[in-house]
Design goal:
3-stranded mixed beta sheet, about 45% helix, mainly alpha, 9 helices, about 280 residues
């Protein structure tokens, strides 16, 4: 009987230790994001341009709907002063404000797209201004520090893809199509930044820079192999295949390669993480 009790205790102890180890492994693998765990998926997706909701300059958060909807929009002519039917634009802007008050965000985005499509107008809700001159069907600007074009696309063809991507997002709300176009561009070494409203060519295929404080390469990976893994990981995000992206992150982590999505950097870390002990830490 004593042997049975001892055996039962050991089995329970082994199960508890396995659960603790599993919990630790999951915690380590989740550390690839520098954001709080409850926000890491949405914030990572939003950071690299994937819509997990309709939240950017073409959309309106609840805060935007409650604030900053009084008063008229003023025209900003600092970049373009071309002729436009200002009465028609202001009428649409008033309809858009009314939709914001009613929290009808699909209507807000529909009007915003109509302003761009019909009048080449972009709206800035923060400054309550609107601008003309966006005749390409999108408002993305080629980054000044872009690498040379290594794809087989002309810039006119890229503009067409960016316009189709925007149309899929803001007119049809078809994020599957828009994310597919983003991934197709990525495979051609073209990165789209929705926060900065810019695009650029990247010679490494992913746009992450090696951190200046990287440790020496202690893995058996070449630079090209690391670039390929980072590119596959980013493409998995664009395809909203989060489980594959997380697995690739853990593979890189096991090879002492830490990725920082917020800074768009990666580095070798002999510790297997990029956390630093706080200066005001109590003694061990």
């Amino acid at each position: 009987r004593d042997r049975s009790i001892t055996k039962l205790f050991l089995v329970k102890h082994a199960i508890i230790m396995k659960l603790l180890n599993l919990s630790l492994s999951l915690t380590v693998c989740s550390s690839f994001f520098t954001m709080p765990p409850n926000r890491q998926r949405n914030d990572a997706l939003h950071f690299i341009g994937i819509n997990v909701g309709i939240r950017n300059q073409y959309s309106t958060t609840r805060r935007d709907s409650e604030n900053n909807i009084d008063g008229i929009h003023l025209r900003d002519t600092s970049h373009d002063n071309s002729n436009v039917d200002e009465n028609a634009v202001l009428e649409l802007l008033n309809e858009r404000d009314e939709a914001k008050r009613n929290q009808n965000f699909h209507r807000v985005n529909s009007i915003t797209y109509k302003l761009l499509k019909c009048y080449s107008v972009i709206v800035n809700d923060t400054t309550r201004t609107w601008r003309t001159g966006f005749t390409k069907g999108h408002d993305y600007i080629k980054s000044a520090d872009s690498d040379p074009n290594m794809s087989n696309l002309s810039e006119e063809e890229i503009d067409d893809l960016l316009a189709r991507r925007m149309r899929a997002k803001y007119r049809f709300y078809d994020f599957k199509v828009s994310n597919k176009i983003t991934c197709d561009l990525l495979k051609l070494s073209i990165i789209v930044d929705d926060r900065l409203r810019s695009w650029r060519f990247f010679s490494n295929g992913h746009g992450y820079a090696k951190s200046a404080d990287s440790d020496p390469n202690a893995s058996n990976l070449s630079q090209k192999e690391i670039d390929d893994l980072l590119s596959l990981r980013l493409c998995a995000f664009y395809e909203t295949n989060i489980s594959v992206a997380n697995k690739l992150t853990c593979v890189l982590l096991k090879l002492s390669v830490v990725v920082n999505d917020e800074l768009r950097e990666w580095k070798f870390s002999s510790k297997g993480h990029d956390y630093k002990q706080s200066a005001d830490s109590d003694p061990n």
